[in-house]
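Input chain follows. Return structure tokens only.
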Amino acid sequence: MKASHQLAFFLLALLAAGFGASRLSSRESPAKPVQKAATAPSASQSQIERGRYLVEDVAMCGECHTPRDANGNLDRSRWLQGAPIWIVPVRRTTNWSMRAPALAGFQGFTEAQGETILEKGIGPNGLAIQPPMHIYHMSPEDAQAIIAYLRSLPSAYPQR
């Protein structure tokens, strides 16, 4: 493998894993998304804040699940509302996802499905989630905190 491909693969792995990758959108700290007032009744503010920390600062979910503007910066007005995957695998693979689903509002998934995705890396269809999504093995508490945070965000698909 060429050194440039090894470097690209390494950087991709870091980004997908969410560890140590710097924010690609800008050098400035972007404004935080506005949270909905209504949250799940069982979610405490500290649980939502823990979920926010895990989503934004550890897993860096916004890097793939948030659309980008014409300059390649994250569009914070559409935070975690789903986006085309902008990274490509180093080697061709048949199971590479082409779109990151919307996470804001946590619609389309049950709580149990969300926990299974975050704790075991198994999607609602019973199969392992597709790359470039990293398979996490989170604790139930961390998975529940992430779900509480995602539910606190304005949905990508407003209720009718």
